[in-house]
Every structure is written in structure tokens, then in C-alpha cells.
Amino acid sequence: MQDNYRREIDYLRVSVTDRCNLRCFYCMPEAGVELKGCNDILRYEELYKIIKATTELGVSKVRLTGGEPLVRKGLIDFIRDIKKLGIEDLAMTTNGTLLAKYANDLAKAGLDRVNISLDTLQAKKFDEISRTNHSLSQVILGIKEAQKANLNPVKLNVVLIKGVNDDEIEDIAKLTLDNRIIVRFIELMPLGESYNWAEKKYISIDEIQEELNQINNLIPAEIDQGNGPAKYYRFSKAKGKIGFISPISDHYCSECNRVRLTADGFLKPCLHANNEFNIKEVLRTGVNDKELKRIITDVILNKPEKGLGIESVSDFNINQRKMSQIGG
User: Fold this and answer.
1) 38 annotated as ligand-binding
2) Is 236 annotated as a binding residue?
3) Helices H, strands E: what count in the chain?
4) Which tens digits make up the pLDDT trace of 116-153?
5) What residues contact residue 286 under an 8 Å CB cut-off, 6+ apart?
6) CATH architecture assigned to 11-326
7) Residues that bind GTP, according to the entry (predicted)?
8) 92 annotated to bind ligand
9) Which of 101, 147, 236, 267 is the most buried (most CB within 10 A)?
10) Would you call 142 helix, strand, or coil by DSSP?
11) SS3 letters for 26-69?
12) Percent of the chain at pLDDT exceeding 90
């Protein structure tokens, strides 16, 4: 279906949990966020009901996020159930630490592909960023197992942070030379934990493209599957591709095709705006399917034209939720 600005809304991002086994410093506090109780989080049957309603309204692409989705018990069976709804593209974003264990089962259940958050290739720095002792080698193994399970294209999401991983841009990009993966560089957004310091640590996509062009000319490229705003390129003769996502320097509100469902039951039409609808409350009053679809339609129709104040990195001043609480 379309919103009031004639954007086709066909993509739903679903956070299945607010829990995560990492504590990445730009995402959540070192002590973690205050976790919701079991009754505060949407049950699988509630998630199923919402997803079913959105697919009947035209959503064909669903991404499962967290927190870290793989820490929630029963996820494999849930994936199997919602895939039967006819979802064309069922994907998941994960930190990769548990992926080696579950990759094969995820694929068998119907998951189509995965995005893996990976901000460094250095083991010590990985521990510093994640503030845990989870091994980088676990994530690397998870990438390999995802490829074996044909959860392709495997995409690596790299959040750019000045003074943290800008010295690794070339090394990370060169992963695409010999591997059929997609590396995506993402501008740092001032959300939650990064709100007060993002401007100082911000790196624009233009800077990264210029750096990589000096190494090996980037050639425009396309990918078979993709729901988002990334612009894709590749190095000459490379097996993989490189994507660039620029929510700050070149925001893409006019092309946004998504809504988000938080783990605690809020339907959020825009990541960078305050408005969100408590759909959990409605579900638990016994709303019927017809009324549920009407409510979801109203939320989509009220999707703002753009996130409030989205003009530059210093203009984000409206959303203090941690990214883990919204859904990655």
C-alpha cells in the first residue's frame, strides 16, 4: 500500500527482542538497557498476527532484528511459521556471534538471507567496540556458515566511526575482492548512545568513496535482492560488492518504503520521528483482523514526509531511544 506521499510501503522490520549479548558502545550503555519483562514484549503469536496483517496489506519483505534476534528462544519455529505467509524476502540482521550454530537451521526454516554487523577485522578492537569477550572468530565462522547454508547475499554492515575503524576502510572493502559478499559502509547516526558525540565521530560516505576510488576505481553495480537505500559499487574484477548508506549526508526519506515494529509493541513509521503507535495495547484488547488492518493502514498513512529535523548530523534532536530498543 502507499502512504500519503505515494511511497510504496512494502517492507516491515520486526524487532523480536530488546536483548543482546554484545554491548557495542554506540548502540547501548555498558550495563545494557533496562530490559522489558516477558509480558511487555510481544509474544510470537502477536508478532505473527501483525505480520500476517501487513502482508495482506502489501508487505512482501520482512526483516527480523533485535537486540540480537538469535538470543530469543523459539526463533527458528517462528521463522518457519511466518515464511508460510508468502513473504517473498525474509531476512535477518544479526551480530553474527551465534550464527555458526544456527545458520543451517535458519535456512531450512525459510530464512532467505542475513546481514551481519561487523565494524572491525581486529580481534582486540572487536572486544573494545562490543565491550565483551566474544571472539571475532565466532563472527567470521558465522559468515562462513551462512554462506554454506546459502543465506546469500551475505551483507556485512560497517558503521563508520572516526578514530575507531576509519583506519580499516581499505582492509574491509578488500574483503569483496575474493569473496562473494557485500560490504556496506553506513554513516553514524546520532541515536541513543551516540547522540552526544556522533557529530565529532561522523565520517561521510563521500569521504569513504573518495578513499576507495584512490585504491581501485569503483564501478556502479546492482544486487539481486535489496530493500534499502544503499548504492552499490564494486572493484574491478571483484567477486563481491560494496554498498554505501548515507542517512545523514544524503538522506533518502522520499524513497523510504518501511515501517518498524519494536519488540515492546510499537509500530514506528519513521526511525527518526517521535510518533509511534502502541499496537500491543490494541492487540491485547481483542481487536479483530479487519480492525487491526485498518489501524496499521492509518499508521502507514501518517508516516511523516521525513524524519523531524533531518538535515545534518547536528539536527538529530528528537529521538532518545537506544537503537537496540527500536530495532537495528
Assistant:
1) no
2) no
3) 12, 12
4) 999 999 999 999 999 988 789 999 999 999 999 999 99
5) none
6) Alpha-Beta Barrel (3.20)
7) 13, 63, 93, 155, 258-260
8) no
9) 267
10) helix
11) CCCCCCCCCCCCHHHCCCHHHHHHHHHHHHHCCCCEEEEECCCH
12) 72
